[in-house]
Amino acid sequence: MIVETEALGRTFGERTAVDALTFHIAPGEIVGLLGPNGAGKTTTIRMLATLLPASSGTARVCGHDIRDDPDAVRRSIGYVMQQVSPMGYYLLTGREKAEIEASLYHVPRRRVKERAAEVLDLVGLTEHADQLVQEYSGGMQKRLELACGLLHRPELLILDEPTLGLDVQSRHHVWEHIRTLGVAVLLATNYMDEADRLCDRLTIIDHGRTVATGTPAELKEALGVLTLDDVFLAHTGREVS
Amino acid sequence: MTQEVLALTRRWVIILFRERLNLLFSVLQPAVWLVFFAGGLSGAVVIDDYIAFALPGVIAFTVVGNSVTAAMPLLFDKETGYLDKLLSMPIRRGSILLSRFVFQVGMNSAQVIVILLIALPLGVRPATGVPGVIGILVTTALLTLAITSAALALACAAPSHGTFFAITGFATLPLLFMSNAFVPVDSMPAWMEPIARANPLTYAIEAMRLLVMEGWGGGVPVALGVLGVASGALLGVGVWQFARQTGQRVA
Question: What is the ipTM of this complex?
Fold first, then answer.
């Protein structure tokens, strides 16, 4: 298993953000983590990316315990964050950013340039590699982030809202790239069409708990509905919180 | 770890040279102090060679200003979320801090050399020659370590960049006035002396002033020793705050 969580939990003071969450991801599988805002998606991801310690339970990522061996976990994952402002590197070119991050992922020095060029090519940015990031469109910035998540050939790619705020063309472009990667992906999203198109399996969470899990087809069939939107609303309620 | 520090430092160097105007103004700033401030005051004070006297003060002031801004990238990485991205990578936490020191010591050393070159036509030549210049660079490296550590600690502890700028804006000039940058400690009012003596800046300036105006003597190692202890203590605070911020051991 690429990811195996065991009653993973996180509390912030009195509030329980994630409550005894159990799920798994098999090699090569794309698993969607769905839930309304505040359901615990980002908290779960931050625990798996070793940025936030778990309050209870544990998880193994690529066989490494997130508590005992966070460094081994970090070597095995590529983490593409939700909406990183490019301000910190907007004066770098896409290529420079990729090369710097390749070095940070300990890609051997003589292979850094080659590997950066490879991942930029993979997301269709070769033509724009030497442009400053500040000149990139939102979609190009997302693809650059995606490319940088792949530099060290991770076994698991964690994507937090990879197409948030993008236009339809850019979203389809990003999806095409995600589908062809062949690595296991944990995808947190609010877009049901995205989950439907990309994910092999879905876990819907609300208030930090799993409320439904299965393939998109299974989930729709179980409720006799046609769209994932209906599945989502049936499990998480229709009221706006 | 070397690869990590080099990669992180490369980011700062590329950005530095792409912001050319920023670079130009920060290089020119000390010249304005030296020519107009020290030059302007030189007729009004009893000190013989006031420009030579004020040179270490101008150097210290420049190093302090640069070192405070050294924390800004960390502050912004924290607020934009890029710090989290860095922390999700298999890098040593210490590399993030160390790259700031490496970059800032290099940058400040270059700037100090520029200031010393500007001082040449104004008639100031360090009494200790080239070894003295190396001594000055060692002093400014220690001062950079001290102030950068304090600023990094503040950047980690401050709830927002607004607080960071409010505190550093408030503290920077008083830190200078409460030192011997422009007035010898002996001619300060008696109540001010202990304040100046408690200020690490005073020791950095004292060491540099001896190297510029007199020569190597017992005073230089003593002042550098005090400065070194202060730098070590502030580094400890910086590392502690950074570890608290990132929830990790810094190793």
Answer: 0.88
